[in-house]
Amino acid sequence: MHGSPTIELDPAHLAQPFPAEFSWGFAASAYQIEGAAAEDGRGPSIWDTFARRPGAIADGSTGDVACDHYHRYPEDVRLMADLGARAYRFSISWSRVLPLGTGAVNQPGLDFYRRLVDALLNAGVEPLINLFHWDLPQALQDLGGFADPRVVDWFTDYAALLASTLGDRVRDWMTFNEPAVFAFLGHADGIHAPGLRDWPTAIRVADNQLRAHARSVQAIRALVPDARIGMAIDVNQVAPATGSEHDRLAAERWSSARDAWFLDPLFGRGYPALGLDAHREAGHLEGVDLAEPPAGDLDYLGLNYYRRDSVRARSERAFDWEIGALPGSEQTQMEWHVASDGLRDVLLELTQRYGPPEIVITENGAAYPDRVDEDGRVRDVDRLGYLARHVAAASDALRAGVPLTGYYVWSLLDNYEWSLGYTRRFGLVHVDFGSQRRTPKDSAAWYRRLTTRR
Ligand code: GCO
């Protein structure tokens, strides 16, 4: 840890710059916590399929049970309310409410989200609904998935169903979470569902997410006139690994081909020239007919921030680069380079470049190998220090004029970390996956002091 830990970690001190109405919250996603994968009529999603693929998941696990949140949501809502959360960002499992993705509605699935929203509102926690956190209904993947242009209709109908069911009580919405991860890790790198390795497909998936966003926002606005709608983009700090000209150029091209690939269109600028060049040179656009993407229409920009990515060029060719933590840097268990100053810089840069009406930090958090001590405590000092430094960086950005209105920790509970299964713990609350026992960690007590300062 840097500097003087006492003042730096003190939540009362850290909370000072934030306005009273600031949304302190937690973020989670359906497949990572719900479990009950085959209950009450839920249809399979691409993650149910992918997790069963031999070798796909580090510990061979699935989200079949996860945190059993589907059954334990009353306890989980109580927990987050106890920790002072004013807001909770969760996602809808599309195949729980529409088992085939389109057509017949599964009423018990919709009822679950109705009960969850009621429980949150009763506990004084504002719900933020994310419509898509990567768990596409398998039935739609079988028809071509997000690479098929019909997905714009499928998604818009699904969004309208949720807006008409929950729009009377839910004001905060998000269409997509980390569209780059879904498109590129799922369809080009093959390490996330649906596990494809084809760049032109990934580019089509990215494009269709932008189109589905634009159309579904219109549908939600028509049904929920006071809705506040955003998208969560994962923008980590991208930096050249060395001072060399090659690395500098590689970092610029990578950030354009990945982050600006979504941000520029969302803010009405179309695809970025540098990114287009890089994708074209790498052959990613072969056979793809890229029309001008629609602008975004966002009430807020969601930012998921975790780390600094250093880019090292292997050659001058586009996409011939290595991305990761600098050797010797401070890292979490994900081997992510901890860089809280990067959060401040990214917030400032996004504000200067795009001028969003508001920015919400929709995810920030860290994995460490926690354990429950004999006295029942989880002394997660590393996580606590990580959070404190990032909250401090957020307050620096706020003071510098960034229109920051919320901060959601990833996550309330330890949960299913995608292809790493249950081997990485991001929660402020420890979960024993055998007994489903929840134990708030030291960082949870710290967060409560931050959120309840007034
Ligand atoms: C997301 C994230 C989460 C991860 C978290 C830690 O897109 O919202 O990927 O689902 O669990 O970022 O890796």
Name the features.
about 450 residues; alpha/beta; TIM Barrel; eight-stranded parallel beta barrel; three-stranded mixed β-sheet; about 15% strand; globular; binds D-gluconic acid
Report on this model:
It is globular and about 55 Å long. It is built from 17 helices and 13 strands. It has a single domain, classed as TIM Barrel. The model has no long low-confidence stretch (mean pLDDT 97). With 454 residues, the chain is of the alpha/beta class. Bound molecules: D-gluconic acid. D-gluconic acid binds at residues 29, 32, 177-178, 181, 304, 363, 410, 417, 426.
Write the topology of this structure.
Elements: H1 5-9, H2 11-15, E1 23-27, H3 30-33, H4 46-51, H5 69-82, E2 87-91, H6 94-97, H7 107-122, E3 126-130, H8 138-141, H9 151-166, E4 172-177, H10 179-187, H11 199-223, E5 228-234, E6 237-240, H12 245-258, H13 260-266, H14 273-281, E7 300-304, E8 308-313, E9 321-324, H15 340-354, E10 359-363, H16 381-399, E11 404-410, E12 429-432, E13 437-440, H17 442-451
Parallel strand pairs: 1-2, 1-11, 2-3, 3-4, 4-5, 5-7, 6-8, 7-10, 10-11
Antiparallel strand pairs: 8-9, 12-13
Helix pairs in contact: 5-7, 9-11, 10-11, 12-14, 15-16, 16-17
The structure holds D-gluconic acid.
D-gluconic acid binds at residues 29, 32, 177-178, 181, 304, 363, 410, 417, 426.
